[in-house]
Amino acid sequence: MNKKVRHVLGISGGKDSAALAIYLHDKHPDLDIEYYFTDTGKELNEIYDVLDRLEIYLGKKIKRLRVASNSHKDPFDHHLDLYRGYLPSTTARWCTKKLKLKPFEDFVGDDPVISYVGIRADEERKGYVSTKSNIQSIFPFRRFIWSLDVLNKVLDDKNIPVIAKLYQEIVKNNKLDRIQETVIRPKSINFGFTKKLNLLLDLGVTNFNKVVFLFLKTTQYPISKLDDYPLLYNEDELLRDDIFSLLENSGVGIPEYYKKVEFEVDGKKGEYSRSRSGCYFCFFQQKIEWVWLLEQHPDLFKKAMQYEKDGFTWMDNESLNDFIKPARIKKIKEDHIKRTQNSKNSKSPYLLDILEEAEGIACANCFI
What we know:
Blueprint: E1 6-10, H1 15-27, E2 33-38, H2 45-58, E3 62-65, H3 75-82, H4 94-108, E4 113-116, E5 135-138, H5 148-154, H6 160-170, H7 176-184, H8 193-202, H9 205-216, H10 240-250, E6 261-265, E7 268-272, H11 287-296, H12 298-307, H13 320-323, H14 326-341, H15 351-359
Parallel strand pairs: 1-2, 1-4, 2-3, 4-5
Antiparallel strand pairs: 6-7
Helix pairs in contact: 1-2, 1-10, 6-7, 6-9, 11-12
């Protein structure tokens, strides 16, 4: 007997996943979505506040997933012992693998699953795509909802005849000739993957989605088990400002740690906040976020310091003990103010993007 396709959405406690839950609840209420949160035991209290408010809005519980539930320690400390005090880092992200990915994949098991991911239309990151064939990622905030692995198959030159035939079956208007010209043109240096994809999307997002859906019906992707899929008709593109509007208008609100806090250095004023959800000691934090933690949650900063021992530190080549020196804090704040002032000259309209690029960081919770 074929298993029923499950629809799941991971809530990180951050803005994008919370907004995605609100968006799908409002726009596609017939989707029976299971919400989950992978709890490391080291989250900010503000994250749990968001979960509570979101449950009220959705009218549904968000399942809390915790690994090592029988341990007397929380998930992070339990695994830290297993790794003999070796702290996670940008080169050894065992926390993501063990505390986020594993409980998620255990939660879905071998069931066919469509996993909804809150990556915005103005983001470049690819998002989590499982190596398990029973899990398929969908991105509702983007003009193309499909993951890169799916798009690569659809736009593979060897599938040109199949895709052309599917378009022939679906499109019944005067755009068909232009579409077919694009479909049958092989990719090249001057006509790459991105250009071909965007041209097809410009010629009709819904038609493109229908073609992809029919193509996937010949595969083992979870969506192949569905007779129809409401997001095929989804042509929305949500940007960062749209996310904040969804949160505010729903009453769920923006997580408190996103709210800017003013500071002053030698008469110059700046602002800081946290840029994402996750553990309070996340090694992907910007330097200015560590300052935010020190000054807004000194108790948590002190706890983070206690984890640094035997040469293991949260930041490369710098311990938190050195970090808290007044001269170091002042320099980080001054640098942050300068980057903020120079933001108008950046290609990115969002200060957050500028600061992340400047510090070379990436998102630890990209899969949710």
